[in-house]
């Protein structure tokens, strides 16, 4: 048995083989992969029994690393996500404070965003003055801010605020508004130093686009046009001159739905155009029973939210959304809200897209606006008043013609910016 640094070999001297001559020796040996690039020298060394020269030593520079305080210590505060409900409550969905040494104090609060500022980053002095002076000056913990003491790891997930500070330099507070813009701030205090994390105003929600599948079955006598002005969230519905006599058939908009959850809401813009000397076209819109492809409105017997007679709101057995006339070529802005008590919907109409209460034109509950005709009630065509949070309201819209003026006008209604909030 012969051994070598490059492998292990066995001497089979005198072994019989049909491929060997008498007196020949047979050696079997194994080489490791690291020797294959020098096979000739390995073989000669093995046969002669002479060891190979020691390999050249490869010296590499060593790397040393000494941990510093910045490598070991972690202090961070963050607000990663928040939302604001229709009920005007700000909820932190994701946020935390973490430190290897406990924070003495941690605060979480919201500040109304300054629309005129290029950014809403606050200075160290502003933050320090806020948490030392303003935040406890007549404010209420739990609604205006949250505070934690002696914490190394604190989650803010699920915390809510109903008020925000009017600005970073004041103790003045203002109620959270669903359409408001805010900076949500987390501040950690440690040995007189402050760690700050914040998230700015939420991006505005995008309008729901109308695809070719949005209205698979367009109501009779209605012409639907999508992508008006190149906007996928803008459509028109036009009634033809052969349209329904004192009736409106409403198309089902598959993608315009509203969960029956308190505070859920939908808003959109609407205007009427294309009038001659008199525009007696009718418009009907409703969040109704999603089972049917159509909802019907025959003016007197099943009015839902109906405008007729040149924009005047029609009433016969039900109530008006507003006494104001809907003018031609003017956008009105509608909002539908699921109330706290399920089983109805609140409709509001405004003259301005801000939906500020100062611009409110009218407000009614859907149950006040619906006149239930027995014939339609029997076949289920009237809107179901949902009472379960598993239910989903479905939007219907249609344009019809009323009375003897069918040859005078083909009324067109424009709908855009459907936004679910």
Give a short overview.
The protein is mainly beta and 421 residues long. The chain is built from five helices and 24 strands.
Overview of this structure, please?
There is one protein chain. This protein folds into three domains: 2-48, no CATH class; 70-199, Immunoglobulin-like; 222-420, Jelly Rolls (Sandwich). It has helices at residues 39-48, 69-72, 124-134, 366-369, 374-378; strands spanning 2-4, 7-11, 27-31, 75-84, 90-112, 145-155, 160-161, 163-165, 173-175, 182-190, 193-199, 222-225, 234-239, 248-259, 265-273, 281-288, 294-297, 306-308, 312-313, 332-337, 346-350, 360-365, 392-401, 412-420. With 421 residues, it is mainly β. The strands form five sheets. Strands 12-13-24-15-20-21-22 form a seven-stranded antiparallel sheet. Mean pLDDT is 76; it is low at 1-20, 57-70, 291-303 and 373-382. The protein is flat.
């Amino acid at each position: 048995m012969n051994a070598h640094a490059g492998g292990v070999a066995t001497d089979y001297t005198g072994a019989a083989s049909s491929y060997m001559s008498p007196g020949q020796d047979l050696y079997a040996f194994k080489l490791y992969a690291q020797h294959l690039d020098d096979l000739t020298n390995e073989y000669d060394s093995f046969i002669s029994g002479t060891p190979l020269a020691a390999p050249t030593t490869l010296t590499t520079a060593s790397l040393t690393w000494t941990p510093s305080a910045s490598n070991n210590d972690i202090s961070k505060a963050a607000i990663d996500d928040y939302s604001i409900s229709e009920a005007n409550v700000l909820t932190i969905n994701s946020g935390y404070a973490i430190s290897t040494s406990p924070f003495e104090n941690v605060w979480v609060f919201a500040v109304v965003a300054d629309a005129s500022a290029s950014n809403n980053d606050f200075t160290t002095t502003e933050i320090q003055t806020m948490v030392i002076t303003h935040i406890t000056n007549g404010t209420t913990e739990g609604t205006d801010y949250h505070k934690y003491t002696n914490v190394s790891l604190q989650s803010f997930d699920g915390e809510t605020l109903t008020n925000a500070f009017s600005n970073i330099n004041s103790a003045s507070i203002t109620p959270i508004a669903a359409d408001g813009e805010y900076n949500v701030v987390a501040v950690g205090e440690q040995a007189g130093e402050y760690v700050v994390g914040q998230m700015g105003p939420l991006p505005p929600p995008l309008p729901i686009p109308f695809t070719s599948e949005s209205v698979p079955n367009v109501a009779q006598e209605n012409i639907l046009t999508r992508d008006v002005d190149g906007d996928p969230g803008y459509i028109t519905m036009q009634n033809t001159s052969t349209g329904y006599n004192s009736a409106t058939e409403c198309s089902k908009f598959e993608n315009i739905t509203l969960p029956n959850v308190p505070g859920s809401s939908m808003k959109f813009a609407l205007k009427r155009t294309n009038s001659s000397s008199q525009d007696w076209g009718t418009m009907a819109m409703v969040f109704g029973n999603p089972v049917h492809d159509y909802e019907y409105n025959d003016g007197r017997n099943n009015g839902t939210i109906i405008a007729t007679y040149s924009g005047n709101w029609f009433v016969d057995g039900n109530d008006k959304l507003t006494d104001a006339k809907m003018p031609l070529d003017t956008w009105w802005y509608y909002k539908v809200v699921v109330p706290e008590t399920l089983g109805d919907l609140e409709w509001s109409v405004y003259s301005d897209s801000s939906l500020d209460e100062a611009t409110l034109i009218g407000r009614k509950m859907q149950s006040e606006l619906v006149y239930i005709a027995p014939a339609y009630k029997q076949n289920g065509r009237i809107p179901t008043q949902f009472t379960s949070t598993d239910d989903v309201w479905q939007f219907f819209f249609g344009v019809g013609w009323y009375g003897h003026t069918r040859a005078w006008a083909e009324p067109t209604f424009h709908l855009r910016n459907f936004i679910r909030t």
